[in-house]
Amino acid sequence: MYSSFKLGKKFAQYYITAANGKGHGIHSPFVFDFVIHVLNDNKKYPCYNLIESLRKELLANDKSIEVEDFGAGSAVIPFKKRKINAIAASSLKSKKFAQLLFRIVKYYKPETIVELGTSFGTTTCYLACANEQAKVFTLEGSKSIGEIASANFQKFNLPNVYFEQGDFKQSFPAVLQKINTVNFLFIDGNHRKEATLFYFYECLKKSKSSSIFIFDDIHWSKGMEDAWQEIKEHSLVTLTIDLFFIGIVFFNPDFKVKQDFVIRY
Q1: Is it the case that residue 118 has pLDDT exceeding 70?
Q2: Are 184 and 112 in contact (CB under 8 A)?
C-alpha cells in the first residue's frame, strides 16, 4: 500500500490532469452521456437517507468484534479485535461513491450483480435498491462482519440480496457456478494484484458486451495499479473510466477504438 503522502501526491496529479467532470471536452458520446446522466445526477433518491442512517449507526457503534481477514489486511487497524465504528470508518465505501454505484446500476439496469467485499452491507444495500429486479450476490470473508451485514439486509427487507460468507477461495467459485452471466461486478475485497486479476479473468468468462466491471482502490498500491493497467490492456476491454478511487470497465464492441478516460470526480 502506498503511504498517505504518496497517495495524496498521486491524487493531486490526477485532479490536475483529469478531464473536466462536467463533460466539457469529452468527445465520446457514450462517456458524455455517462457524465451527464450518471456522474452528475444530483437527485436525492428515497433510499439515500435510509442507507446513510445505517452508516451513521455503524459509525456510532463502539462494540468490539473478532475479525478474520482473508484479504490484503487493514493498514489502518491491523488487530484482530476491532471496533465496529473503526471498521466502518476505514472499510465502507464513501457516500459519494456508494451513491455513484447506485446510479450506475439504476441507469444501466444490470440483471446479475456480483460484489466481492460486503463489509457491513451499506454498498450492497445501494446496489440492491438501485434495481429491485436484479439478483445481488455479495461475498464477505469475515463471519462476524457478515453477521452484521445479514442483519442489515433483513432490516432493509432486501429479498434480492444473496449473501455468501467465507473465504473467497470457496465462496467465489460457488457463486459463479450459480449464475450464467456477470452483468455488473464490483470488486472491493482482497486488494492484491494477483487476486484482483484472478477475479477479473474468472468473471470475464461470464461477461457480456453490456457488462460493467468496477474495481475499487485502483491506485491503492503499485500492485493494484499494475492490475488496473493489465485490465485496461485486455483485448475485450473497449472503454475504461478512471475516477482515481474506482476504475470502471466496459466491453461494448460498438466502441471501434479502445478508449481510456481519466475524469475528475
Answers
A1: yes
A2: yes
Q: Is 121 left (phi over 0), alpha (psi -120 to 50) or beta?
A: left
CA gap 187, 42 in Å, rounded = 25
Evaluate the CA torsion angle 189, 194, 196, 200 in order and state its sign. negative
Rounded to 10°, the helix 46-60/143-156 angle is 140
Q: Evaluate if residue 68 carries a pLDDT over 80.
A: no
* 8-13 average pLDDT score: 94
**Which residue, among 119, 137, 247, has the nearest Cα to 183 in the 3D structure?**
137
Task: Dump pLDDT digits (tens) for 199-239.
Answer: 999 999 999 999 999 999 999 999 999 999 999 999 999 99
From 189, 172, 128, select the one nearest 154 (Cα to Cα): 128
Position 217, amino acid:
D
How far is C-alpha 246 from the geometric centre of its chain's CA atoms?
A: 7
Amino acid at 219: H
- Of the pLDDT bands very low, low, confident and very high (cuts 50, 70, 90), residue 190 is confident
Task: Kindly state the percentage of the chain with pLDDT values over 70.
Answer: 96
Of 210, 181, 167, 205, give the one whose Cα is nearest residue 114: 181
Pairing relation of β-strands 239-242 and 259-262? parallel
End-to-end CA distance of the chain: 22
